[in-house]
Amino acid sequence: MQVLPVDVRRHLVELAAAVLGELAPGDVPAVLARVRAFAPARRPRAGAGPLAVALDREPAFRHHVAAAWRALHPELAADLDEGAVPGAADPELALAGVYLLRPDGWPELAATLERAVDETRQAEAAKESDAEARAELAAALREADGLRTLLAHERERLTALEEELAGARREARRLRSDADRARAQARTALEQVAADRERLQAEADRQAAAAQEAQDAARRAQEQVAASRRAEREGRSLADTRLRLLLDTVVDAASGLRRELALPPADVRPADLIGATAAAPPRGTPAPPVQGRDAQDPAILAQLLALPQVHLVVDGYNVTKSGYGGLPLVDQRRRLVDTLVALAARTGAEITCCFDGAEVDSAAAWRSRGVRVMFSDPGTTADDLVRRLVRAEPPGRPVVVVSSDGEVVRGVRAAGARAVPAQALLRLLAR
Description:
The chain is an alpha/beta fold. Helix content is 66%, strand content 6%. The chain has 15 helices and 6 strands. β3 and β4 form a beta hairpin.
């Protein structure tokens, strides 16, 4: 799966798990066969990896999930089909829809939405940081207000004491004519008042210093808020520039490779280009036989059919005459092709069935619901056609030939294909 934000990936996996439980068995991709057997609540957790791979590599399964998403968000899906994203749309939800629906130009639209998701998250983080700084500033301002209130209270006390001192002085002047005792009492009172005044002055100075410190702290907090905002703007600008440069590099590289190769989509298989008399180049090194197991075990064939991009080539009359040779040839062909259609639907493998063309009036090739049926030309046999089909495949692609004819088996193994006897296919089809 394309690298997506964690929340978007989780949303897609949960939706895919729900859709997987509603699919018909024939529509379930092979990679999700085990995941479908999980309990519904366990599928999104235990099957997250296979579900993500299936969404990325199985178009049919992704279409089912996209249909479910479209049913949940019809208006947003209609906008995405036109390549537009409403301004009020949740970017994470819109990114999930773009990944599933894949409208024209969806990679660029997905990249834009990913940047929108990142910017939303950065903005939320910036808001949280700004809120914390504002809270600290508010606390500092409240503390400064408290210190100012305390300073005002102390100043009121100082004023009261000064008024009291003035009264004492007036009393001293009135008592100046008193005896030495009265003078001594007056001197003592004056000294006490002076001491109190010094103490109060010192306290006032301390409170003023504390108020100044509070103001300095408030100013530093404001500077930190401003610095935080500048750092946020600079960080976002750098991240946007780096991401844009990386995106331009990838897009230019992909465009150059596409122009250089000029390859159309691969919608034709080698077997579609092989005629009854066409020649094919040698394919590759011989394939080793399966050791240590019964060659007629259908489990071996089932494992081979599970390989990616496997091509199953069937020697038609060799199989039908081993299983139901008493039927007329037309019924043999019909019965074998019908069972191969079911096998193709179940495994997704490419299947080609070859018959001798001398037994039919019209030897033209045809398809039956995913199974290619071919006939040899007069003068050639189905064995020759099977060998040509094997040689036409590119080296490295898994090719499996079903035949009990020893000459056919030796020929296809020499060309690099796997050979299994007819009974293995008959047993697998009878399951």
